[in-house]
Target: Protein-export membrane protein SecF
Amino acid sequence: MNIIKNKAWFLGFSGLLIVASIAALALFGLKTGIDFRGGAMWQVKQVSGEVIMDDVALKNFLTTNLEDKNFVLFPVAEGGYLIRMAAVSEEMHQQYLSDLRTTFGTIEEGQFQSIGSTIGQELKNKSLWAIVYVVLGISLYVTYAFRKVSYPVKSWKYGVITLITLLHDVIVPAGVFAVLGWKFGIEIDTNFIVALLVVMGFSVHDTIVVFDRVRENVLNHSANTSFAEVVNKSINQTFARSINTSLTVLVVLVALYFFGPATLQYFVLTLLIGIAMGTYSSIFVASPLLTIFRK
Model:
């Protein structure tokens, strides 16, 4: 398969994804959850009771009892509801739980977490810096690892290409979640940041495998073989390994997405999108960029 010959198509496709993702982020932004803006998340489930706790009944209860009426109600896969509301003290949380049990009978509480707005802003800043540090750190490490490979591509160019592919693999999932947040109200939290960091680690792992094979083939190729041919040969030698490794991960993630806990669903979705894009970028973006950077 001659990937280098058709690199314009592959890079063009990635370019369209990047432009679309940046446009989505600029137009819609990312809808942040309570981790970043502050608030409370409360999961409750009715075990038994004379009054059925359905959407309407629970919404009426919350409207009547909550001091802040700005809440969002989500049904969860394992039964019950997830309530997102303004931050409350532990005393108020226990009061709400007591009132809920008085109204609907036996209520099982799945989780409750409340985060103030100051802590939320601090988490947002630290999350952004975490991504910046990881991207720069990985790029500098790749530059150092390939320091002895100066022909026909300088080692620092391997680091720059790694930086480009990492940004590619982060921006596309972020763009998807910007659209999902605008269309369906899906919010991002610290799990989203963790998923992006995992994606970057997985992506650079795949990219380095291809680059390392390029390095080996560059040292062993004949004088009549062009650099583009060497890169294309390296891609084909690692292609099956990259695809098979990614598929085994994606199969597990698909199972987790459909059968795992609802609280991890969007974390898994981020991994699905990011790992798929990371596999694509290591084969169809990073390697073709090597031949372009050589010129």
Notes: The chain has a mean pLDDT of 87. The chain has two domains: 7-34+119-294, 39-115.
